[in-house]
Amino acid sequence: MKKVEKLRVAVKKAKLIAFDLDGTLLNTIDDLAYACNHTLEVSGYPTRSLDEVRRFVGNGIPKLIERALPASVSEEEFAKLVEIFNEYYAEHLWDYSVEYDGISELIEEFRIQGKTLMVLTNKNEVLAKEIVQHFYPEIFVKVLGDNPEKTLKPDPSYYYEALEELQISPEETILIGDSDTDVKTAVNSGAYGIGAEWGYRNAEVLAENGADIIIENPRKLLELLRESNCTDAYC
């Protein structure tokens, strides 16, 4: 069966769609880079380029800071750096962040098809909820993020807990994300994984880590969804 046909089967079967946040729903890289470089600069470390920060994101804020540092630091200093980042970023969550072209239409198409929508991110959960509520008020039933009591992607445990609460099996879900972490989460959970090539990782990385299909932009995915749910409006 061709990949596009498998996508259509997965869409018809799916009850829930889980989106990654950074690099999938929103292009947040400028705000993340400013927060990262503010943290480094006020702490006496060299700053990083936008391309470097783009490579560092995907595994949560602490991992971003760890990758941005030129050398390891004490646990106490590291905790302070994360605190500086979070304090600055909380005041600049969407200064430059923008939605990817076609995402709103894609979300609406999933809603037309009766899908439940969720956000699954490694961003600090409190901050993620603020961002999602700002850009997408009352759209997503859950926003799961970095939480001291939960594990991060690609461990699917937190995802499983949410699905159990919603009485949906992982095999009835689709996970859309732009990173190796996202597609690994899909593989680990048993969800169908769509690699979002429009984000921060390229198609090769997404393929190597197990994406079921790789889509170049949201409008292409929207086109395929409408074909799979052919109605008089689109056919």
From TrEMBL:
One Pfam family it belongs to: HAD_2
GO MF annotation list: phosphoglycolate phosphatase activity
Alphabetical list of Gene3D superfamilies matching this protein: HAD superfamily/HAD-like, Putative phosphatase, domain 2
Signal sequence region: none
GO terms (BP aspect): DNA repair
SUPFAM superfamilies (alphabetical): HAD-like
Assigned GO CC terms: cytosol
PANTHER family: PHOSPHOGLYCOLATE PHOSPHATASE
NCBIfam families found in the cross-reference section: HAD-SF-IA-v1 (TIGR01549), HAD-SF-IA-v3 (TIGR01509), HAD-SF-IIIA (TIGR01662)
Protein name: HAD family hydrolase
Naturally occurring in which organism (per UniProt): Fastidiosipila sanguinis
